Request: fold
Amino acid sequence: MELNALDLSRFQFAFTVSFHIIFPAMSIGLASFIAVLEGAWLKTGKLYYKLLCIYWSKIFAVGFGMGVVSGVVMAYEFGANWARFSAFAGPVTGPLLTYEVMTAFFLEAGFLGVMLFGWEKVGRGAHFAATVLVAIGTVISTFWILASNSWMQTPQGFIVSDGHVVPVDWFKIVFNPSFPYRLAHMSIAAFIVAALLVAGTGGWHLLKGRRDPMVKTMFSMALWLLLVLAPVQILVGDQHGLNTREYQPAKIAAIEGLWETEKGGTALNLVGFPDMNDEVTKYAIQIPHLGSIILTHSWDGEIKGLKEFPKEDRPNSSIIFWTFRLMAGLGMLMALLALIGLLLRRNGRLFENRLFQRFAVAMAPTGFVALVAGWITTEVGRQPFVVYGYLRTAQAVSSVTTQSASISLMIFVLVYFVVFGTGIYYIFKLLAAGPAVGILPISQPTTGSGRRVLAAAD
Amino acid sequence: MDITVVWAAIIALGVFMYVVLDGFDLGVGIVFPFFPDSSDRDRMMNTLAPIWDGNETWLVLGGAALFAVFPVVYAITLSALYLPVVLMVVCLIFRGVSFEIRGKARKTKNLWSLAFMFGSAGATFMQGVILASYLHGIPVMNREFSGDEFFWITPFSLLTGLGLMVTYGLLGACWLVMKVDGDLQRRLYRLLTPLMIVLLVFIAAVSVWTPLSDVAIARRWFESGLLHSLLPIPFLVAITSALMVFVVRKRHDCMPFLLAIVLIALGYIGLLISIWPYAIPGSLSLSDAAAPRSSQMFTLVGAVIIIPIILVYTTAGYWVFRGKVGHDSAYH
Reply:
């Protein structure tokens, strides 16, 4: 198959954004976790909270740094690869991105220095304030970028004139129909990502035989959070599905591998292989009425099949049928992990059951996997449009040559694997090292300024 | 005043903030080759550790504001300068990540020093190339880029790339003079005057070359009475340079950095005068390229309130980490 600049640009965007999202997702959850730890230390005066706080700050710092630099790529890729999208949708997405930079990026970057290197430079209260502001910054950032993405999914509040959008009602633009669901779903996902990472790390060190309050605390806190968020996420995801069925029915049909609009209740394809050419989902294992129950909350609710939509308007069901199932399946496993944790806690065996600890370690990366799978589902599900119903992806690409697009794609793939691969390796090293036992990283000489807290891991 | 002009001014200010702040940041990487000692390099990077990502955020603001207020300029410029932009961000990745990894690495520490050095130098060079190509005029037809994918490779753009490396290098060295002391500071002082002389040569070359190579700019400079307002600039540059030599002799801590900023501001003013009233020199005027008023208005409300707040806490951040950065080799 001969790839053109459009295919290459799509692949490049998918690749760079998938790599990028890993880091902010981790930062969003960890920032709040760190703020809670620091607050707990200030309130109780227990040292292990502070040690935990410093430990997770190191991991946060590496992840945040990689999030910043991979984010710069995103901020310029819109124009470089998607010039026609930028010219068309820029009057809406540009201001939203600008608000994100002004209200979130600067806030995070401005107080990150104090949070990481300012322990000796400012008072306890001021340091805590800096940590909280960084955490707030990550949440504000989620707000704006989700507003922008949701607007591309369910656009409203504008007119089209002179070949570009003209904003009419900013409130409608920001609070577009899919925004509340998407924002809730993504924010919770980011917290789950961090909770699984923390729980997995705790599990790892419990397996290694550590039973100090630091390891126990992080394991326990992460599992409590998971116990609340995993079930809530399933409910939010369900509501999000109802919303998608209303505003992007083709996406729902593709997610379910559903071709015909059935009367009297739609079955759920549990597994199967949707074939876009033959217009059928092969080898499907179905459960009668379950599709209607999940997507319409009724016994015989009607769901539009893909054949209702012209061939050129259908998202690729073969991909998102499976990415959705991967995400949802992992979500169920996460809830199971949290539930078993609760049972073990009641028996007083939470810190002793090795099988459960192995389970927690195995689940550590699944937050990232589910997150990326979910994003692939919603983004591929929006195809063939980039601004749903208004601008096709094929019309959004720059006039960049195939040669340039190939060169850049090769560079990005190579650099991302080498550079971010190394960064992730160091994150693993920090995770494996565990929080320091018996050292007080705070009581070091105060002569040097701008000292790297990170280096305390060595 | 016209809202589009206000926005052009805000973006110009944002770019200036970026040039100064990330300029010294990148400049530290550019002067890295002069300081091969690993503990010197630790110290140099430690002066940046708490502030570098705030500095880089101005670049993101520049991109985002352009996207919001001049989406056509954002689209044309970035797609026209596709490869330089890609190379610039890749270089920024290398140097940004080396902040996090270099301090942790053992065997590969020197490799990450190289990544920091080449990342800083490469990003700067590409910014110079992008600037020169933009100034020279991007071929535009029907509000889209219509040129060759390698149109940006010209002697002028390569010269500007090198010139910007010297600019940032000088700024970085001045920053370091302010932030360190002892032997390292003495060796840094020795770098300042030579760097500034090279910079003056580049400024002269670019100033002569620009009107020679671009008839439109030449006409604007020499025929529209603009020369009158540009004329003080070379004099001010000369005065600032003389002052620089003086304060370096006097071994003043902070003055070199401030004077370097003044030098850059003078060059930047010259640049803005050359571009006005275009959004893309020679092709699109500011008003032609502007986003709908509703986009500009919505974003302006936020910018007017938030940017001053950003400036306040950014300054506070620098204040927290003021003073010299000592050796902390004992710490590692």
About this structure: Residues 3-326 of chain B form one domain. The beta strands of chain B are 140-141, 144-145, 278-280, 284-285. Chain B has one domain: 3-326. The two ends of chain B are 55 Å apart (CA to CA).
